[in-house]
Amino acid sequence: MGEQSEKIKKNICMGLLAHVDAGKTTLSEALLYLSGKIRKLGRVDHKDAYLDTSPLERERGITIFSKQAILDLGDTRVTLLDTPGHVDFSAEMERTLQVLDYAILVINGADGVQGHTVTLWRLLERYQIPTFIFINKMDQDGADQEALLAELRKRLSENCLDFGPMDIKTEIQKETDPGSRAEQNTNEIFHTEAEHGEEFWESLAMCDEHLLEKYLEEGEVGPEEVTRLIIERKVFPCYFGSALKMGGVKYLIGGLEHYTANPLYPEAFGAKVYKIARDEQGNRLSYMKITGGTLKVKDLLTTSKGNVAAGDEIWEEKADQIRIYSGAKFELAKEAKAGTVCAVTGLTHTFPGQGLGITENSNMPVLEPVLNYRILLPEGCDVHQMLKKLRELEEEDPQLHIVWDEQLGEIHAMLMGDVQIEILKRLIWERFHVAVDFGTGNIVYKETIAAPVEGVGHFEPLRHYAEVHLLLEPGEQGSGMQFFTACSEDVLDRNWQRLILTHLEEKEHRGVLTGAPITDMQITLLTGRAHQKHTEGGDFRQATYRAIRQGLKKAQNVLLEPYYEFRLEVPVEVVSRAMNDIQKMQGTLLPMETEENTAILKGKAPVSTMRDYQKEVVSYT
Fold first, then answer.
1. In the prediction, which pLDDT does 32 show?
2. Of all helices (H) and strands (E), which one includes residue 411?
3. Rounded to whole angstroms, how far apart are CA atoms 254 and 164?
4. Residue 319 and residue 297 in contact, taking contact as beta carbons nearer than 8 Å
């Protein structure tokens, strides 16, 4: 690795994203093989794919946990992160987006752009990730290169340009002996764009005003200009092929090598935690990308300074080991420089989305579960011990929201759907040897307020005293809970203020309409009082909780119901049935579109009425 590292000029983190069954894991095998990382191609259906390391993944043939592999493409070292494609594991995929420099979006050439593909595209846009597109399974009947490119331009972006050869089907047929492929002189295949002639370069130049002027004057576009357009998300290179037959993958590799650039990192240390997991020995692993400076073994890590004001607990822990994973194996490293993705042992306070050093915490994820399930435990199982064990799983997947219902003495979890339930049952059995079941899912409602209100909380039994004044204000839709202080330190000591902010953040506060969690609110500490002799830390917990409750009881409360945004494709002859169904569900429809014999309906509908509609559509179409 030492010799190789001398010629490595670029170090980039690349994510693989796709709708389920688009062939994402097969493409990762092809990339690993062509880069010389593996000698034999694995297959999902043969249960020997390099990155599907979990027995659960091999058994089901789907990616459940994000994994990494390190491969060298010429002078470019790529940390490849394979993410889950199934919608039930979207939260795991979305957490991985926070550390990517680039993404490869894989699309099934036989199916075209599907619903979840559009969701992934929006997330890539939200996190501003430069994206390459690989349209897979072009060897299948009905996969039309021109029609697919037109669909990409219509549904994703007008700036999707074909960077590969003009006729990929002929290219796929040429791909014969795998040995000869690896030996090819790759320089011959990198600039296939030249095949497309002036039309291609004009289309490319028209993606950017300054470049268009330059192109009209000089008549050419340099590779560094193409790289800049990709980074600025002004162009999205598309490559067609068949990952299973290795067709077209070499062109994608050429694009990754020629049209990516090393990100610039600050010198001060920073890191972003994107995943918590445990190895076979039960060691807690904090997966992170170093976003500035260098991390060395035994360095002291602490929470980001920018997050302390929000009431974060301040901790300091040593990085015991730095592991660089590739597939199921890892190498120990003495240090990790900026751009490196690694797993660190010895940290107990980290959580996905957390910023360390100079890096800020991430915002709340866009994709959230909308169903709440009761976890049914076997007879004789200690519910409190089980709650402790399930909290361990919640660390790894914060979207689970393991909740202890004190009144009913029940454990509840928030889940995306049936596949996640099956996987969770197996995980709990394999890790804790407890056979749990799940009750029927209930809809996750939330509550907010319509106008600002002030809440006051007192706690003053004998020899105790605390008083808290809070301003509760409605926040922007989807902003979650935000906490601030506007209290002078002359009125209330800084330590007490920090304690109040901690109590605001430490639990999910419940609304007063249905007892659903509150969201989309800003809570600001206005003032408070403590007694020199009689105030203890726990007094402020009680006063804070009471201030929130008192404020909510005075407020104009609003119940929020989760909605699905849907796209429904049905044969034209059953479209009236579908439209009637959506009306019955209290859904709203946009004007209908038609393509050949297919009607496309888009709109929104409540989760409560639409949750099982997918099965119904399958039955009547």
1. 85
2. strand 410-415
3. 10
4. yes
What is the SS3 string spanning 463-490?
A: CCCEEEEEEEEECCCCCCEEEEECCCCC
In whole angstroms, what is the distance from residue 529 CA to residue 543 CA?
10
Q: CB neighbours (10 Å) of residue 36?
A: 11
The answer to whether 227 touches 261, Cβ cutoff 8 Å, is: yes
Q: How far apart are CA 60 and CA 58, in angstroms?
A: 6
Alpha helices by DSSP H, listed for 53-156, are: 55-60, 90-97, 115-126, 145-155
> Strand runs (DSSP E) across 20-123, as ranges?
67-73, 76-82, 102-108
Residue the block writes with tokens 């393509």: 595
226 or 9, which is more confident? 226
If you search the block for the tokens 């000089």, which residue do you land on?
218
Question: pLDDT tens digits for 33-65?
Answer: 888 877 666 555 555 565 555 555 455 555 555
Helix, strand and coil content of the chain, in percent to the nearest 5, comes to 35, 30, 40
3-state SS class at 189: helix
pLDDT band with cut points at 50, 70 and 90 for residue 184:
very low
DSSP symbol at 512:
S
Q: Which two tokens stand for residue 146?
A: 């021109």
Instruction: Give the dihedral sign, CA 433/434/435/438.
Output: negative
CA dihedral (191, 192, 196, 199) positive or negative: negative
